[in-house]
Amino acid sequence: MKVLFLTAWYPTPQRPAFGVFVREHARAAQQFHDVHLLHVVLTPRAKQKAGRSIHVEHSRDSDLPVSRATVSVPPMLGLGDVVYVRLVAEALAQTGFVPDVIHCNITLPVGLGALYLKKKLGVPVVLTEHSSDFRLFYTGTAWARVKARRALRGVDRVLPVGEGQRKMMEVFEPRAKYVTIPNAIDTNMFCPGTNSDRAGPIQALTVLGLWEHKGIQFFLQACARLPEQSQRALQLTILGSGPYEKELFDLRDQLGIAGSVHFLPGSRSKAEIATLMRECDFLVHPSLREATPCVIIKAMACGKPVLATRCGASEYLVGPASGKIVNKGDADALAAGLLEMMDDYRGYDASRLAEMTALKYSYEAIGRRFDEVYRELTAP
Q1: In angstroms, rounded to a whole number, what is the distance separating the alpha carbons of residues 380 and 370?
Q2: What digits encode the pLDDT tens for the residues 277-305?
Q3: Which among 309, 320, 263 is positioned nearest to 285, based on CA atoms?
Q4: Which of 73, 181, 203, 337 satisfies CB 3.0 to 4.6 Å to 326 for a cystine?
């Protein structure tokens, strides 16, 4: 069947770009269906210019058909989500794609646009929410709450990417129909490497945006609390960029751990991240809140154990066979976890860990779960 993956966001720091996650889900669905990804972006323009304009560009991301619709609109005084509802139908018409199922990604504004298409086209709609903190984006005002609840109730299924996120959303809108389906990863890219008896320090890796809620400040404090001998035996690499970068650099220097903690600012390709994961001994993920941290899944797919925090998501991914979980925002707990991982990381079965991760999070595994939902909703 034909499945339209629909997404959108406003180009502001407060509305993060979920394009990577959406593309991975689209590729998972593509294992069983004809998929087209439509990304609609509302961009503001000068107040004096009347009307609106839609510009649609078509491309392919590897073998995934993608249409990007840039919709230029005047300032809308908070009515952007409502305007989006009508514009998304115009953008879809320009793609020439007629879906049997609409799979929208993020609740606002996409959920509202998908509901409009559901009524117009008479097809079922499912909604995947990717936000690490649903309340942050959709409960700030009474108007936002009304719109978000309308979207969640109106779609045929809501697909949280994690159990912690699902519980949060169920409290917000208990009348929606929820099915948890996690993020997908490319297990051909993220897979174990060749085993080697590498000499030198133990290598720990962290891949996170440098934001305050990612908890890296507690990780740095934990590194400083390790015994001197352990600090010399451990090299920690932090890959990522973000608005908290300067504060974290300064904190590292103040703690006197610049010799063992190294930052790799900027972004890296999937292939480069996969290589870093295969070269490390274990991953550290100290975040304070998440939906489903794909970086943990990718590390496990590479056969690497993980030290992570109870942040509403990681505790559902990491178990005794794949790593250790400690309390979030607790430098002492992280320091203790680091010491344990330094002693235990060789004891994890890398091949088994990678195999079990692929069975749950590969494109095929997640695509099969999407297929079950789609077929249930389209059955006569």
Answers
A1: 18
A2: 999 999 999 999 998 899 999 999 999 99
A3: 309
A4: 337
